[in-house]
Amino acid sequence: MTKVEINAGACGMVTTVRAAKQGARQVSLEISSDCPAVAELAADLTELGFDELLRHRFAQGPLAELAGRTLKHAACPVISGVLKAAEVELGLNVPRPATITFVEED
Description:
Layout: E1 2-7, E2 14-21, E3 26-33, H1 36-44, E4 47-49, H2 50-54, H3 62-70, H4 78-89
């Protein structure tokens, strides 16, 4: 099983994703969150398959449509975290942290 924790930033909401491999091309998802919009998404997003992960361009396909209906902010990092967890669980990516760092310049 692959587990990720996503701290969404300014809103302070935390989401936990657990992805468990179901066969060679499918993962089941367990998503829990402080965010009501992500909780709504989680009710409909219980699995992802190989096709959803690799056959759609950025912001296209059924996952993007679902996120567009439920999430309130386009910059929410939750979908990226869900996708990364699923990819790692299926062996399509490596478990490395992804970060966004704000850098103050003079």
